[in-house]
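Weekly modeling sync, notes
Attendees: S.R. (lead), two postdocs, one rotation student

Agenda item 3: backlog of single-chain predictions. S.R. asked that every request posted to the team notebook include the full sequence so nobody has to chase files. The rotation student volunteered to paste the first one in as an example of the format we agreed on. Action items at the bottom.

Example entry:
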Amino acid sequence: MKILITFLSIILISSCTNKPNSSKQKTEESPTETTETIETGASALVTIDSTIAVLFINSYINDGGYVDRVEWINNSTLASDNYKTALTKLINDALKSDPEYGLGYDPILDAQDFPDAYQLLEYNRATRTATVVGVGNDNFKQTILLKLIDGITMVDGCGSVNIPTK
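Predicted structure, as returned to the notebook:
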């Protein structure tokens, strides 16, 4: 009985000491970082949070995809004024050109069809873009441009608006 307890104790102790290494290994293998800390001004550190991209696009799908897009974007606290202005202009210009059809696609999603939700695939520090893909369907891929404004991460490009061509 003592041998069995000693043996089980050794297994338990060895498995506990291996767990930190295995979780550390998983973290190192993960290609996705959700934040980027950058230095601004007088050595103040601020963080760009790429999860804002996922929050933005999923809240649009859940709340905004079925209402007036101009109204939704102008009420969004996740989008920059630059993005709001560019998107509003694009939509209004299309409606002036063709009042019945408008753009003919969703400019935020840059598509007619879309998944029920998106998840973060990767964040590119150099371009400050987050790539999101459809949950359970990676055929739907979207690039979202993030910008730090007054210390807050905001969407400055998404869909067919303000996204670099490269």
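Discussion: group reviewed the output briefly. The longest strand covers residues 137-149.
Action items: rotation student to repeat for the remaining queue; S.R. to check formatting next week.
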